[in-house]
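Morning run. Coffee first, then this:
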Amino acid sequence: MAPDPLTPYGNRPMVTPIVNAVNYEYLSFEVLRQITDGEIDGYTYHRDDNPTVREVERKIAALEGAEDCVVCTSGMAACTMVYLTYLKAGDHLLIFHDTYGANYKVSLILERMGVEITWVDADDAVRIGEHLRSNTRMIFLETPTNPLCKVIDVAAVRKAASAVGAMVVVDNTFATPYHQNPLALGADLVVHSATKALGGHNDLMAGAIAGSKEDYNRLWFTRQAIGTTLDAYSAFLLDRGLKTFELRAEAMARAAQAVAEFLAGQPKISGLSYPGLEGHANHAVAARQMRRGFGGMLAFDVGEDEEDAKRFVAALQNIYHAVSLGATESLICIPYLTTMLYLPPERRTTFGVRKNTVRLSIGIDPPERLVKDIRQALACVAQGVKAGG
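And here it is:
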């Protein structure tokens, strides 16, 4: 048998090799049979599997305490694969308003396929049982949520879901596995936009779904069928990002806590939401289900209106006006104008987002540099400086 492509010389290279092969030569018909029957690990065609992709899957599974992991082309591909794998016509999906806006687009497709959907405010999670039905098959949630950083008690949701036999899927992109492992809290599956903190450098798109080996097999079937297998080079970049993931996550959480504490005392700031603050509505829940800090994401309202938020963002010098999150750079956006464009205008503000709400993703900048930048930007808001650009 040919050597493992990740150990071509009998000893392991320090950098995961990029295996760009689309197809593979079979050494014999017996080897082909063993591969296709699952008796041995092997590769046939890239849409089925790839050695570089498989390596990063094992690493993410380990971070989440999962038996296995399926990596795919984007975070939304991961969400869609979950929906397509586990839902069918007549099933009921319960999902929270405070989640990444593109899920709204997917919900329209699911409804055309006959899936019933209920949207619930994350603040209503304590009464989730009131929204469950006998045909509820899945509860999909983020915690902390996107963009308002609300916190949902995963164990409580698990308990409610068990009453109707529903599975619980948690998008762990905001928290990251450094701070939270939803499987240990009772979730059935964990979803990631690996584009964000796991990759961490704004240079790749990928999604990940971690769970049991049985779930891996079912999700692998969906990925193979619809062709959402990640390319080898993106998998290589993701693998590289994971090498510094824990260092970055620790630095982000430390700086985010400092920034949140600074913002808490500023007169132009309201609606501040960061799980690490004792004043956060669900700080106690966050402290129970998160560890080693509370992540690098904050949400808050600036001034009185959209123009104040624009002034603030435009005045920042070290924080970049851009979507996405979890990167080495600190990024800020106004969700109403960016990440929530997928939603109709009337739905963007129904669960707490305002036109002057901003979402801040802390990078690896020193906390004092971020505080200095925010302070001078708030001064521009106070002075009514016109927003540029």
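The longest strand covers residues 136-142. Good start to the day.
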